[in-house]
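Posting this for the archive.
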Amino acid sequence: MLRTIRLLATLAAAALLAACGGGHDSAPATPADTTPTRGQLLSTPTMTGSYSAADLLSLLSSDPLGKLLLQLTFFANLLP
């Protein structure tokens, strides 16, 4: 009698597990993780402007702060 109850309980448990669907669902698979690596660009950069060396020197030399930056750039090895 006890053996029959265990057998029925085991069969009932197996039937309940089988009714769960076996892990097959209709949801689409999740896409692979596409996190960028270090240093990788997220999009193509757009060029906002371009200057020649002469243009940059003229822009810097017309401003007092620009003149100071030029002095620091060309004579940086003389700083303490």
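The chain has a mean pLDDT of 78. Residues 72 and 79 are 8 Å apart (CA to CA).
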